[in-house]
Amino acid sequence: MSLTSRFGIGLIFGLLFGLSTPLIIPEISHNSGFATAQAQTQPTVFSDVPANYWAHDYIAGLAKLNIIRGFGDGTFHPNESVTRAQFAAILRKAFLQSQPTTAQSFTDVPVNYWATDAIYAARSAGFLSGYPGNRFAPNNFITRENALISLANGLKYAEGSPDALSAYRDVDSISNYALPGVRAAAQANLVVDYPNIDQISPYRPASRADVAAFVYQALVKAGRAEPLAASAIDRWQTQPLVTLPAQSEQMSFSQTGQQLATIAINRNSFQIWNIQTGQLIKEITASDQTRFSSIAISHDGKRVATISDNLSTNATRLSVWTAATGEQLWQTSLDTPQQPDYPLPFGGHLVQVAFAPNDSEVVAQLVVSTPAGRAANNQLRFYQAATGEVVQSLDAAMAEPLLRSIANGTRIDKIAFSPDGQFFASAQQGVVDVWRRNGNNRFESLRTLPAPEGFSGFLDMVFTNSGTLNISTLTGQTPLATARLDVWNIQTDEQPSRTDYTDWDRTDVLTRLSPDGKYYFVRGDVAGSRLNNVQTGGQQNPRSGYHDTVAAFSGDGNYLAIANEQNISIFTKTTNSNINRGR
Question: Where is the SLH domain (predicted)?
Answer without folding.
Answer: 42-105, 106-165, 166-229
